[in-house]
């Protein structure tokens, strides 16, 4: 069996070599894939007694698949609307086992162990039915006096055929988990055939053991023996080995039988409470699982190391930014153009950049113009610039002067930049520099020219990249100028029916709080634009935290922790990675600059200028948020407090006039100059060395300043990426002639999170700033060296090139690696709306894959009787995101009906007489009927199963109460009420006071009493407050309903109290039973899909239904109740293909997933299209 990975989309397969789905083989089964062979570890002592004489066995049933209907399966060409869907996806072929085939095996376990009195045997494994290695959810095995010392499963496990499963046995004592079996590694089982029996021995297993058929049978099931590859034995040899065992074994066997008789009697009398819930044990309670998981983690984290990143040779990296990282110069003599890399740009090419190891192309705008030139670039200029930049692998996008002014100077610098730095919009428009400019800004805001320009520039660059990139390329987008770029590029690829390239977006400025971000009129569009990538990166967790809050509050998205230290946001069926990684500096470049004689000479001159004084340096942009006035106030107070320092200290400040936000720049410059004049007049003209320049300091000028200075002071109020403190530490650290420097760093700076040796300050606290300055000036050399030692190794070994490779390695792990799905699902999934952790680690599950339409279609076309169970909200109609502030109704389902395409698909499906289609919902009967009641051949279930209505052409004769809907359109359906009586009075008396208190306490919450439920809705509350209140309310309710026959169902934004016997699983089972009665047989195709926690009961009911047909058939058969009698009743009914599917990639009891409602619609459209032409059901009179 070949390994395969989860597809990234609906996959299209041609053909693949597979194992036989059933039947007797020659005993030579293909070797197990190495990916499913657990690592070996030292053998531990067995803490449970066992007999080592018996061999291990299993068997498949010999059954062929269902006969073909003779109809031709439609292709993508026949269904044009599927062409893009299939062509943009990868195949899942290459493996013998695939959950997309919908085939299952009934697996019985029979394990031998000589248990002690009071002990029971349990089994837990990687699949849902085995409890995901959670002892609290493990399967209980039973025994009888005749079977002991063998313990068997009560009913068969339903496992996807051909898919490897890992499992282990455990001992419980008195119903409480005691210990796992001590074996070298987890057991591995690959189900084969219709029915399979595994007979094995507790505590005896290693990775060299294989299941080999012995030729024996238990009724219709073959017996397999687990053997080691290097020393195969036959059943005869195995029996002979039993005769050669120690003679004391006979006595031990007799004692075991006596103990077994007593134990079995107690089991039969239900005196051993096997179902008593033990304290929740860790999933990693297995020693072998711990060892194996450690090895997996070690190998995984090695892949995150920059040195381990090896790009594909045929892939290209596109670095996309607004400003191309080049400097263009036009010769005054002949008008020719020249270009060079801007060494101060983060993404420019350097000696050790990513461009040295993979093909790299830079794409961005060219907005060059001379200060005296008010004309745009000519076509000849553009052609010459394009040719020059092509030699540097740069692709220019030319935009005219007005468009650049509205995009960069307008929307980016005048709106996004201050707001992303948490400047409130009221401050921007009403509390700034002069009234005339306020009027101008209000006019710009109203006419929308800035926003239109922002969209236009993003679209122009996206279109240019879309022309160049291919599916296996990577596009890395930089900064807030291009927030819409990812969505534009993704839409372009979708419109061209091709898969988009992998995308990264990295933000180099802070992200605002949700309160400030709310003031952006197009904030939602900006968020959605960014989330169309695979990775969103930030330099600081504070910035990422604000981004996640915005996603939660304005898009209703949830996020989880991922293995590897990243976060993940669920967006449109994808998990977008949120990574926090601060970029480093180009250490090689700085070393070269340090060795430059001109730089050393500039440093010497600055020292001579301020001879005998301590130099405190500052390099900032001239703007309010840089906090330069706060530095000045601190110096003024310091000189007042410590006048002896007046002649020993000088403050060297260099301010850059960027000319982008002139109002802020001019105001700040005037304020700073007034403070400089005031301080120098009071404390001497040489205490401050302040200069302004229109161009930022070059790398040479900065390094010269670092060499000459003793202290660097950064007092920014809000700041994104600032690498100057890292440069200062490195320059002072590697220069042998320099004394270790001290960095006084604002806690609002992003680099504060990576410089542990800095003296951190709050710049608003002037007194604290003065004290920190005094500490830095009087700091001993020993402390200086200690602080430098904290930061220098990190700065030295984390250059910018490593940062690039590290982010790309995370991208590769999530998108290219065959284990990429594991990276998402192998976490302990935390649903922020449900508020509780699903202890369901599905990363190790090979039985959870993306739905493959071709294989579902193949099974559909081969089947004769089909049943569809479809959830409503979130499955066939979009569900409102409940984490948002504004919701539309109680059920979080939009007021719209399903789309016309969805309606057509449902109608086509129901027109086929071989199909039984039900929509199973928790919404009220009135709402469900208004939406879907006009589809006469569609079955409906409302209120989580309390009421249900079959297709109008089907009459169900039962004794249940029925109600007739009024004669108004669209239908006069017969509705049936679930047959159970329930007295709500004691429940309401118990819960009503608590619910009303929480309604009063939680603004926006609603209490609803329905016929079959009591619900507390917190969808319209503040998301975080509502979640906290829901958790508290659930705990309080569980206390008062402990002795009442009700359950609490936790949905997204809803707490619902329902009777114990009322859930979607119960009605699903009833539908299947009644359908089998109507059709005189079970269906051979069953498809169930849903998106919520309430749908999990449907999935479980389907597995139980599959398993219990075998169990039910044993009743009435002659026999003594042994395990062999149970197997003899095996029912080979026609249920060949079972598909359970969840909407959204998340932990689920289902074995398949689709990404979103759109893919559900496409799937049902495809099946409905295949149904066209089939005989229709007779119309109802």
UniProtKB/TrEMBL annotation:
Residues 1-101, 223-291 are annotated as: Disordered. Residues 8-19, 232-242, 279-291 have a biased composition (Polar residues). PANTHER family: CBM20 DOMAIN-CONTAINING PROTEIN, TREHALOSE-6-PHOSPHATE SYNTHASE. InterPro entries: Carb-bd-like_fold, CBM20, Glyco_trans_20, HAD-like_sf, HAD_sf, Ig-like_fold, Trehalose_PPase. This is CBM20 domain-containing protein. Residues 37-53, 248-260, 268-278 have a biased composition (Basic and acidic residues). Transmembrane segments: none annotated. In the N-terminal section; belongs to the glycosyltransferase 20 family. GO terms for biological process: trehalose metabolic process. CDD domains: GT20_TPS. It holds the Pfam family Trehalose_PPase. Residues 99-207 form the CBM20 domain. Residues 83-98 have a biased composition (Low complexity).
């Amino acid at each position: 069996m070949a390994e395969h990975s989860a597809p990234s989309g609906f996959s299209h397969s041609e053909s693949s070599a597979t194992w036989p789905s059933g039947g007797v083989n020659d005993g030579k089964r293909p070797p197990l894939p190495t990916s499913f062979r657990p690592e070996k570890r030292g053998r531990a002592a067995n803490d449970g007694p066992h007999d080592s004489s018996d061999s291990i066995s299993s068997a498949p049933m010999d059954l062929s698949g269902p006969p073909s209907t003779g109809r031709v399966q439609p292709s993508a060409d026949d269904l044009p609307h599927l062409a893009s869907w299939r062509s943009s996806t990868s195949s899942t072929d290459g493996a013998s086992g695939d959950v997309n085939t919908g085939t299952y095996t009934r697996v019985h376990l029979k394990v031998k162990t000589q248990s002690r009195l009071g002990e029971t045997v349990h089994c837990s494994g990687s699949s849902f039915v085995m409890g995901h290695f959670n002892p609290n959810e493990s399967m209980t095995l039973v025994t009888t006096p005749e079977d002991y010392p063998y313990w068997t499963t009560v009913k068969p496990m339903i496992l996807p055929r051909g898919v490897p499963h890992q499992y282990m046995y455990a001992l419980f004592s008195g119903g409480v988990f005691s210990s796992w079996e001590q074996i070298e590694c987890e057991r591995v089982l690959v189900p084969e055939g219709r029915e399979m029996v595994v007979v094995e021995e507790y505590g005896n297993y290693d990775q060299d053991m294989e299941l080999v058929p012995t030729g024996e049978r238990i009724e219709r099931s073959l017996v397999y023996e687990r053997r080691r590859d290097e020393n195969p034995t036959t059943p005869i040899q195995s029996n002979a080995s039993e005769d050669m065992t120690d003679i004391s074994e006979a006595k031990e066997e007799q004692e075991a039988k006596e103990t077994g008789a007593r134990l079995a009697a107690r089991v039969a009398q239900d005196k051993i409470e096997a179902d008593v819930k033990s304290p929740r044990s860790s999933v990693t309670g297995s020693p072998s699982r711990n060892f194996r998981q450690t090895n997996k983690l070690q190998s995984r984290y090695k892949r995150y190391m920059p040195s381990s990143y090896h790009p594909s040779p045929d892939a290209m990296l596109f670095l996309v930014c607004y400003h191309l990282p080049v400097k263009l110069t036009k010769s005054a003599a002949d008008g020719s153009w020249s270009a060079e890399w801007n060494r101060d740009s983060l993404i420019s090419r350097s000696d050790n950049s990513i461009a040295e190891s993979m093909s790299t192309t830079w794409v961005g705008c060219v907005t060059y113009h001379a200060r005296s030139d008010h004309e745009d670039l000519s076509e000849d200029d553009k052609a010459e610039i394009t040719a020059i930049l092509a030699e540097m692998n740069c692709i220019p996008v030319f935009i005219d002067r007005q468009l650049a002014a509205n995009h960069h100077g307008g929307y980016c610098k005048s709106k996004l930049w201050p707001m992303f730095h948490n400047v409130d919009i009221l401050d921007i428009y009403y509390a700034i520099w002069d009234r005339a400019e306020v009027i101008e800004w209000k006019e710009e805001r109203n006419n929308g020219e800035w926003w239109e320009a922002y969209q236009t520039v993003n679209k122009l660059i996206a279109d240019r990249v879309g022309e160049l990139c291919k599916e296996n390329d990577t596009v890395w987008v930089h900064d807030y100028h291009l927030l819409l770029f990812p969505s534009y590029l993704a839409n372009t690829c979708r419109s061209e029916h091709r898969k988009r390239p992998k995308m990264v977006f990295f933000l180099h400025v802070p992200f605002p709080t949700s309160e400030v971000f709310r003031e952006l009129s197009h904030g939602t569009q900006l968020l959605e634009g960014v989330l169309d990538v695979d990775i969103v990166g930030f330099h600081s967790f504070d910035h990422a935290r604000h981004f996640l809050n915005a996603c939660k509050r304005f898009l209703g998205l949830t996020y989880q922790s991922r293995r590897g230290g990243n976060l993940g946001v669920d967006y449109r069926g994808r998990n977008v990675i949120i990574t926090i990684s601060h970029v480093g500096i180009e250490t090689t470049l700085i070393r070269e600059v340090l060795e430059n004689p001109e730089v050393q000479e500039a440093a010497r001159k600055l020292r001579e200028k301020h001879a005998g004084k301590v130099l405190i340096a500052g390099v900032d942009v001239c703007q309010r948020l840089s906090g330069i006035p706060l530095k000045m106030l601190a110096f003024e107070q310091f000189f007042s407090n410590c006048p002896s320092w007046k002649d020993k200290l000088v403050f060297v400040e260099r301010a850059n006039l960027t000319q982008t936000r002139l109002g802020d720049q001019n105001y700040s410059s005037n304020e700073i100059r007034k403070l400089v004049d005031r301080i120098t007049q009071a404390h001497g003209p040489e205490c401050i060395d302040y200069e302004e320049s229109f161009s930022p300091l070059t790398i040479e000028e900065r390094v010269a300043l670092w060499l000459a200075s003793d202290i660097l002071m950064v007092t920014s109020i809000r700041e994104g990426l600032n690498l100057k403190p890292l440069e200062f530490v490195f320059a002072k650290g590697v220069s042998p002639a320099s004394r270790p420097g001290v960095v006084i760093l604002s806690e609002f700076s992003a680099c504060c999170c990576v410089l542990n040796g800095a003296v951190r300050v709050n710049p608003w606290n002037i007194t604290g700033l003065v004290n920190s300055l005094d500490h830095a000036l009087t700091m001993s050399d020993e402390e200086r060296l200690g602080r430098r030692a904290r930061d220098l190794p990190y700065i030295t070994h984390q250059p910018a090139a490593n940062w690039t490779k590290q982010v790309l390695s995370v991208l590769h792990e999530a998108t290219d690696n065959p284990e990429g799905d594991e990276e998402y699902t192998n976490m302990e999934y935390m649903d922020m709306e449900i508020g509780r952790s699903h202890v369901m680690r599905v990363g190790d599950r090979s039985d959870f894959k993306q739905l493959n339409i071709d294989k579902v279609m193949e099974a559909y076309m081969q089947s004769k009787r089909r049943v569809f169970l479809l959830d409503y909200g979130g499955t066939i109609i979009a569900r409102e995101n409940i984490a948002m502030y504004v919701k539309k109704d109680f059920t979080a389902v939009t007021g719209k009906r399903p789309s016309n395409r969805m309606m057509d698909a449902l109608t086509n499906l129901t027109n086929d007489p071989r199909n039984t289609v039900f929509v199973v919902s928790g919404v009220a009967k009135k709402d469900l009927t208004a939406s879907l009641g006009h589809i006469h051949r569609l079955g409906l279930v409302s209120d989580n199963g309390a009421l249900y209505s079959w297709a109008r052409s089907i009459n169900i004769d039962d004794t249940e109460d029925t109600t007739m809907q009024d004669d108004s359109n669209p239908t006069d359906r017969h509705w049936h009420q679930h047959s159970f009586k329930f007295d709500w009075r004691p429940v309401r008396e118990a819960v009503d006071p608590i619910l009303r208190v929480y309604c009063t306490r939680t603004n926006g919450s609603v209490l609803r009493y329905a016929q079959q439920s009591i619900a507390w809705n917190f969808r319209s509350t503040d998301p975080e407050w509502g979640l906290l209140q829901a958790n508290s309310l659930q705990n309080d309710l569980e206390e008062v309903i402990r002795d009442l026959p009700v359950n609490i169902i936790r949905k997204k934004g809803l707490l619902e109290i329902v009777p114990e016997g009322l859930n979607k699983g119960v009605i699903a089972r009833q539908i299947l039973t009644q359908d089998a009665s109507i059709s005189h047989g079970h269906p051979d195709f069953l498809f169930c899909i849903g998106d919520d926690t309430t749908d999990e009961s449907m999935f479980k009911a389907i597995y139980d239904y599959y398993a219990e047909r075998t169990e039910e058939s044993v009743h009435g058969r002659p026999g003594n109740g042994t395990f062999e009698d149970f197997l003899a009743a095996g029912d080979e009914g026609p249920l060949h293909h079972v598909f359970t599917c969840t909407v959204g990639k998340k932990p689920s009891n289902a074995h398949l997933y689709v990404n979103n409602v759109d893919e559900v619609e496409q799937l049902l459209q495809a099946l409905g299209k295949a149904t066209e032409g089939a005989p229709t059901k007779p119309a109802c009179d």
